[in-house]
Amino acid sequence: MPSHAQDEAQTDTSPRRLLLLRVVTVLSLLAGTVYLTWRWGWSVNWEHWWIAVPLVLAETYALLDGYLFGITIWRVKRRGAAPPPSPDATVDVLITTYNEPVEMVTATARAALAIEWPHTTYILDDGARPEMRAAAEAIGVGYLTRSDDWDDRPRHAKAGNLNNALLQTYGEFLLILDADQIPKPEILHRTLGWFQDPEMALVQTPQWFSNVSDSDPLGSQAPLFYGPIQQGKDGWNAAFFCGSNAVIRREALMRLGITGYVSAVESAVRSALDASGRILARAARRARKEDADTATAVRKVHEGVRKARADLDAGAPYADVTYRFQQTVREASRSLVDRDLAAIRADLAELGLDHDVGISLDPGSGIPVVRDDVLEELTTRDLSPLSALEEVSRIMRAVDVTRADEAQPVMPVATVSVTEDMATCMQLHAAGWKSAYHHEVLATGLAPEDLGTMLKQRLRWAQGTLQVLLKDNPLTKKGLTAGQRLMYFATMWSYLSGFAALAFLLAPVFYLVFGVLPVHAYGLTFLALFTPYFLLNQLEFLIVGYGVKTWRGHQYSLALFPLWIKACTTAAANVWFGRELGFMVTPKVREGGPHRFPFRLIWPQLLVMVLLVVAVVAGVVQLLTGNNLTVIGVGVNTLWVGYDLLVLSVIIQAGLYRPADHDPSDEQNDEELVS
Amino acid sequence: MQIEQSEREGVVVLTTSGRFNMVSAPRMKARIDETVAAGNPRIVVDLSGIEFMDSSGLGALIGGLKTARQASGDLRIAAPGEQVVTVLRLTNLDRILRPYASVEEAVNGW
């Protein structure tokens, strides 16, 4: 059956339902707290601490997750329609693409052209494909690629693509669209009005996928997130930016770019000056032995470093200080250059090399530039003043206000994470801007159509979110309100669920197979305390997700446990040890390939499912043969296993899922490594 | 935004007036690039006629500063009005770029 578009089902939390939701939430958290208090205080079986402690930690994790969720939905904000926009608001529509098919991007661009509010449309082609350019020209939209400044510098994926375009466009507002997101003509009319608030920086609308069947086996639709969760975050002025289908105020982004530039320059210049003390001391020592003039020059530079640091400490502007420092370096080196040049020329003549070919003066630094092969000759002949000057010139390049290591001095969209959207949004909030979640589907896109692609996309989101947590922890970041801290932390916390899932999945196996009890007894006390907590929790989700399908999301948050764990380990290795994430661009279409069940992608889940089934059989057999297991224990654990299997079964559905038109392949995607 | 060009003691003075914002920023950045490319890497931007500047305007100045520095020159700003001083302070850019009180002062300081 060809995939057909679902209705754009959305939740709507009326005031009465919100009241009920709050009551149930409080009761559920109360029950949970009572249960967990009993668990920690009275029930942990320390004899088997190796499973008892992980299990109670996992349960604590889940309860904290419940608290964060409760705080989120406590303030569900229903905005309704926006006020009328200012009639002279100017807008750039930016469509980002890397390797998506030209026809797909063109279709999006055509839809963008049809947006009713006056605007200019651009395709931001990070692939710089001639056929994409031709298509853009044919339908009459702007076409932007990276400038030459990006050659040999960090490209920063989509964030870099947007930053490059920001400096070449000039609309007051930016509508950001992924290559597959087809906007509706009224998208700007409906959203621009929120910017009547001069502090509003961002309006996010839902992401809704048109190529997803009703059963949505890959869990692409996220009605709970693009609904109560975003509305709840919005209530705390923390609605998230999700990378596409959002309108941004240019001034807010540019201001981030400017303040970011200032702090980047400050830390780069400071660390270059700090490091140069040691380098110069070494250079001076070497020079002193060989050549008094060079030693003098190095000393002058060293003096310049000291002065620069003193001036900065006294509050002098960085541009002045670095300019003066560079002058000092120029003068110091120039005094040497004449003498050295004469000596070098003489040496070159001796070697029979033409002095005009091998050596020249750098017009900028005044430092002699020597051709590599000639330099080779010179160093073997131990003419060392040059090497001292080399080090000096390296310092000189670093003590500057140009941010030469980046393609642009101003980088408005954050580049600290592969999820540039969340990182940027948090910066905006920390700088005091507001954001809004507009709960109306105004663009529809294409979800991944096979398991491999879906897994890569989820991995990327999780890795990026955890990168932000590790690099720019919202709990300690300056400028955020308490509510905003919790809203960012809630999302990050939810990505740690993989470890908890492992404990939840394995604990019943250890009981049913080996009789290992993580709690003192599965008795009536356990049932009396756990049952109300569990039922109230289910009721809470029933109310919050009324009218939409939240079960898939629920399943995947447990079923993708290997992926969540991998995201944690790779993000930590990236942030702490500088390893690459190995992140791939999510392909929007699948390529042809053989029809196979993707065992390789989901073997951990399949293994766990087999273990769970074996465990139930073992448990029942042991109960019948009558030793250490109890009826309540086996009963509770069997129900528990049944729930786990029900949840995990989604992964088999996903593996078997084939959209009608074409065959999936595992991986033949263009990869782009970022760190 | 209007841009007028003059020269003093080997320094090019770009006298600007009007609104230095996201609309005019790309033009101003291009103008600075051209000036540097024509062999004048020492530039003073006279901001006394600017009624309003936004962060895109500041971005153009930073871009221009980079171009000038790469050609061993410098870009300085002079005589900003109250609003410009406010945005410089708001973005912390005054920690990097010192606004000179007048064009004379900026030129003499070289």
UniProtKB/TrEMBL annotation, chain A:
Transmembrane regions: 19-38, 50-69, 486-513, 519-536, 556-577, 602-624, 631-656
Molecular function in Gene Ontology: cellulose synthase (UDP-forming) activity
Pfam family, one: Cellulose_synt
Keywords: Glycosyltransferase, Membrane, Transferase, Transmembrane, Transmembrane helix
The organism's place on the tree of life at top rank: Bacteria
Sequence positions that bind Mn(2+): K158, D178
GO biological process: cellulose biosynthetic process
Main location: membrane
Species whose genome carries this gene: Nocardioides antri
Membrane topology note: Multi-pass membrane protein
InterPro entries with a match to the protein in the record: Cellulose_synth, Glycosyltr_2/OpgH_subfam, Nucleotide-diphossugar_trans
Intracellular or extracellular location(s): Endomembrane system
Name by which UniProt lists this protein: Glycosyltransferase
Cellular component aspect of the GO annotation: endomembrane system; plasma membrane
UniProtKB/TrEMBL annotation, chain B:
Domain STAS: 1-110
InterPro entries, sorted: Anti-sigma_ant (IPR003658), STAS_dom (IPR002645), STAS_dom_sf (IPR036513)
GO molecular-function terms, A-Z: anti-sigma factor antagonist activity
PROSITE patterns, per database record: STAS (PS50801)
Residue ranges the record marks as coiled coil: none
UniProt record similarity statement: Belongs to the anti-sigma-factor antagonist family.
Name by which UniProt lists this protein: Anti-sigma factor antagonist
